[in-house]
Amino acid sequence: MRVPVVQHSTRRRSARRRRALWSGGELLVTVGVVLLLLVVHQLWWTNREARRGAERKVEALERQWGNGGTAGDNADSGDTSTPSATQHPSTNTNTGSGTRQQTTTARQSRPNWSRAYAVLTIPRLGLRVPVAEGVSKQNVLNKGYVGHYRGTQQPGQAGNFALAGHRNTHGEPFRYINRLRAKDVVQVETKNATYTYSVDKTLPQTSARDSGVIRPVPRSTVKPGYGYSEPGYYITLTTCTPEYTSRYRLVVWGKLVSMRPR
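Now predict its structure.
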């Protein structure tokens, strides 16, 4: 019987193939672990840290307002005014002796760039989050804050108080704003007053470049059937959609219904 002869070169080739397969397998496992850690970091750790930071900022603002302090955001170029009750039919306040209409105009300072200066509360979503000036990801949104579009109005002012927030990761404060319905309450607290808005309309999806939704009289330039045609006191909430993408924008609008001085 003939015995097969295995040459040394054949053995070496087989050993090299085994080493290559082993090394490739190790590389794939390493890449998989790294990707898993990145996912955990994005979906869990960033949310945890951003939410904790946002909660601490809300508490700090409330302490400063309670002590009569300024909340850390002084005027940088003068004051802007918010409407008085005589300028808007619904801005009444309740006192121990009944309902008393406000006749003085509330004043508020322009917030400094990237600094938290207000608190947004949405009871339906169990949300209570700081509002900061600007929509920078690094300096505002990634901290778990909601950002105010610079150039739009401030809380309670005639025009459009427009906000942006993450829908996923970094605290994801606006993850569930698609659940808001007409007449749901949205409140904005500043060191001077609490402004209450009532949800009015929702635009489920529009282009990320649809600047019409944050204009003083908000109306979509992509879907003109969504929006308003008359001046008013509006709030706009914007976030990315669908979830885990940034291709489109989801928009929720509301109208001011009351203003209560602090």
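The radius of gyration is 27 Å.
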